[in-house]
């Protein structure tokens, strides 16, 4: 279902259908939304974001990270921004890149440790990040100071660095949301 939704997002973004097709698609989507409405659950029980066994944790918000290496200290993986993430001139939208970094660094920050939240995320846009190209993602934990975890990450198109990020993730105290 989530994979189909990702595909739909990319198709909708890249399409210019005739008005009758727009109407048909809109009706079909409204029907689908109505089909799911009776199955609305609380956050704890929803599928999206909670299925570690599915690509992208089963959520369609950020692009899927395909993991090649992952431990408590570093991540190596691959990520492809579909057309859904198009900003302009075949470059990924500037807001989608921090989204991807937050997903990777945020998960790494909490791997094998108490959960942490993003306190800040600084992103440098070095070159255009292309749409529909498999990119290499690298991330690591640089240092831990008490509750503070400092992580860095980078996105590469081949040998070209397209963006890098530095984030602070603060360990949550018991009862902190
Ligand atoms: C499975 C999940 C995968 C995806 C995960 C993605 C992660 C996310 O996106 S989380 C959502 C986005 N983030 C948020 O909503 C966080 C909102 N902010 C907060 O909840 C709080 O401000 C929080 C938890 C970050 C820190 O608050 P609090 O626990 O009270 O910490 P606090 O005592 O103020 O600060 C702790 C230390 O961090 C430092 N610090 C906190 N915020 C910052 C900041 N923005 N910049 C610099 N330093 C900071 C403080 O100076 C302090 O340092 P020191 O111990 O040296 O004095």
UniProtKB/TrEMBL annotation:
Record GO biological process: fatty acid metabolic process
InterPro entries on file: HotDog_dom_sf, THEM4/THEM5_acyl-CoA_thioest, Thioestr_dom
One Pfam family hit: 4HBT
Location(s) in or outside the cell: Cell projection, Ruffle membrane; Cytoplasm; Membrane
A single cellular component GO annotation: membrane
Main location: membrane
MF (Gene Ontology): hydrolase activity
Family: Belongs to the THEM4/THEM5 thioesterase family.
Protein name, UniProt field: Acyl-coenzyme A thioesterase THEM4
Organism: Amycolatopsis acidiphila
């Amino acid at each position: 279902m989530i994979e189909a939704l990702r595909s739909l997002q990319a198709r909708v973004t890249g399409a210019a259908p005739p008005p009758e097709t727009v109407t048909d698609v809109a009706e079909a989507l409204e029907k689908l939304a109505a089909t799911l409405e009776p199955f609305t659950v609380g956050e704890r029980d929803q599928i999206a974001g909670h299925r570690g066994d599915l690509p992208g944790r089963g959520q369609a918000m950020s692009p899927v990270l395909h993991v090649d290496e992952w431990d408590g200290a570093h991540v190596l993986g691959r990520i492809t921004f579909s057309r859904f993430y198009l900003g302009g001139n075949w470059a990924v939208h500037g807001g989608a890149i921090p989204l991807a970094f937050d997903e990777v660094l945020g998960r790494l920050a909490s791997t094998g440790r108490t959960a942490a939240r993003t306190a800040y995320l600084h992103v440098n846009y070095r070159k255009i990040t292309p749409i529909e190209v498999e990119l290499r993602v690298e991330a690591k934990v640089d240092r831990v100071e008490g509750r503070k975890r400092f992580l860095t990450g980078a996105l590469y198109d081949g040998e070209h660095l397209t963006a890098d990020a530095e984030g602070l993730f603060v360990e949550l105290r018991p009862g902190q949301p």
